[in-house]
Design a protein that fits this description.
Keywords: ATP-binding, Nucleotide-binding, Transport
Distance between the termini: 30 Å
Number of strands: 10
Number of helices: 7
Organism: Paenibacillus oenotherae
Protein name: ABC transporter ATP-binding protein
GO molecular function: ATP binding
Shape: globular
Domain ABC transporter: 2-234
CATH architecture: 3-Layer(aba) Sandwich
Oligomer: single chain
Radius of gyration: 18 Å
Strand content: 25-35%
Bound molecules: adenosine-5'-diphosphate, magnesium ion
Length: 237
């Protein structure tokens, strides 16, 4: 479902003519199969978000190939990516990225509006999902009127509203208390069981990592797979 081949990424820093290249990812190879849950851990600054931004098409890798749902998306333009994402994936960002002038309901419904879904159907699906995430009673609240955990759940609702076959999430439980976190993990696992949604989740939380069929670690810009002998030497944090 997701295939990364020899992905390298370096950020350019400094002024033109005097640029420094800061390598962040090196030779990343990763295959995530349909219906698999892969969790990705690693220290802060190790390149986790960079990798997720590449898989989500928000960042072009310096080199390497990205295939998703049997398509070579490596050279997709921003418009192509936007269309591709609408069909193939939902993304939960670390900082929610809600639209401040829209209510929780409107933020969640927006992808359905853009898809041209009929108003009655939009309402049904949006309310059902908000309810499932325990935020139906906040439907009319603007993001500024919601706690961090509530905003995060709206971001999650928006990313799930189109029933994407793939969900990418960057520390999705960072602002949730343990009760809401358990609920959210249950929701992800039921989506995975019932709809075979493929999940790639970045986390530093052991409980979140443990829902993975596989847990990978990024270290020094390299991906350590569970079967790598090197991993045995890596002390668990
Ligand atoms: P993580 O999500 O694991 O905490 P990131 O992928 O956000 O790590 O960042 C990895 C490294 O790349 C860090 O050293 C960070 O400072 C650097 N970095 C991230 N984004 C940029 C950027 N836009 N420009 C320059 N450096 C960046
Ligand atoms: Mg990050």
């Amino acid at each position: 479902m997701i295939q990364l081949q020899q992905i390298q990424h370096a950020f350019k820093l400094g002024r033109k003519g005097n640029e420094r290249h800061v390598p962040v990812l090196q030779d990343i190879n990763l295959t995530v199969n349909k219906g698999e849950i892969v969790t990705l851990i690693g220290r802060s600054g190790s390149g986790k978000s960079t990798l997720l931004h590449i898989v989500g098409g928000f960042l072009r890798p310096t080199s390497g190939k990205v295939h998703i749902a049997d398509q070579d998306v490596t050279a997709y333009s921003e418009t192509q990516w936007a269309d591709f994402r609408r069909i193939h994936m939902g993304v939960v960002f670390q900082n929610f990225q809600l639209i401040p002038s829209m209510t929780a309901y409107e933020n969640t419904e927006l992808p359905l509006v853009l898809q041209g879904v009929a108003p009655n159907e939009r309402r049904r699906q949006t309310l059902q999902l908000l309810d499932q995430l325990g935020i139906a009673s906040y439907a009319d609240h603007y993001p500024s009127e919601l706690s961090g955990g509530q905003q995060q759940r709206v971001g999650i609702a928006r990313s799930l509203i189109l029933n994407p076959p793939i969900l990418l999430a960057d520390e999705p439980t960072g602002s949730l208390d343990s009760e809401n976190e358990a609920q959210f993990l249950e929701l992800l696992q039921s989506l995975n069981r019932e709809r075979s949604i493929t999940l790639l989740i970045i986390t530093h939380d052991d409980k979140v990592a443990s829902i993975g069929n596989r847990t990978l670690r990024i270290e020094d810009g390299q991906l350590i797979h569970p079967s790598d002998p090197h991993r045995l030497e890596v002390p668990k944090q």
